């Protein structure tokens, strides 16, 4: 990693200093009580918070929560502060705003090792607009800036990128871990390197697929988007998901795989159903036998075994996107079995954020993976080879 992290800061650098830390506490909540129902993202930031506490810094946490339109009472940070307090064993006050004289006064009262949480930064439209003046108001609260919110690093928002113009900016431990894990598979992967890409639409993955074709030895494609590829190969896909606007791109990706001599793996059998419903009739069929009136919803058993065989030989695996309609249990077999195969393999395994990370967490397999990214969109843009504003804004080594 060519960016400075808080590991480069000593106790002398940090003791008594006000440190503004951008975290990603955009966590799921109970719709009735507002209580945090999944604290994975809060726990991911704990190493950075604890390090700063131990070094005597005065820690000012800032995050967004949801997509508020104005100051939405249901999206206040109070439940997050409560859960964070429980996790670190120390009371974390939640302030009633994130900028302004009252907040500046509260920050001045802080003692070494104290932690406070600002109110939802997206209560201000200036945050997502990347407003310079708003960023300056955030910056005036602190002397050092730390970005530990990889999940928002692909956004040039005030608190994720612009504030770094006005303070010395460092990566937190989570940000550092993300950059190093994702960077390694792009620049120096152990081979064979296998990428398994699923999800519903090709349109969101075109750049990812193209960039991976220059990096991997084998590219496995599944999920709803696979049917556009199968149609590009001349198969009847029935009523399965088809993206006409990306049909030519699918053809180009198949051609590019041939040119680069990358093994591109498509299903040999699929699960089809009359309706995407748990109670609907479903069966397994070869890809050359998909009925015209049925929908493909998962990879079949022969395909699952073929992917398992590929995984068993891999030294590096990157997986992003479910391989079927995994929200419905009877169509989740492909995703679950491939996930378990990755978890039990000897390969270095990097799991893209979003649905993939959620599936791994739900299955209790996160600790079996080398790295589970906290950023869905951010991890994909990183794998595309794009520069992330939140990373670019940090100090170079």
Please describe what this structure looks like.
The structure is a single chain. The protein is an alpha/beta fold and 397 residues long. It folds into 2 domains: 6-173, 3-Layer(aba) Sandwich (Rossmann fold); 181-384, 3-Layer(aba) Sandwich (Rossmann fold), CATH 3.40.50. The chain contains 15 helices and 14 strands. The chain has helices at residues 11-14, 40-54, 78-88, 101-108, 125-129, 132-139, 173-187, 206-212, 226-232, 247-259, 301-313, 333-344, 355-362, 376-384, 389-392, and strands at residues 18-22, 58-62, 115-117, 144-147, 169-171, 193-197, 218-221, 263-265, 269-273, 282-286, 295-299, 316-320, 348-351, 371-372. The protein has a 6-stranded parallel sheet, sandwiched between helices. Helix 13 (355-362) links the parallel strand 13 (348-351) and strand 14 (371-372). The radius of gyration is 23 Å and the shape is elongated. 49% of the residues are buried.
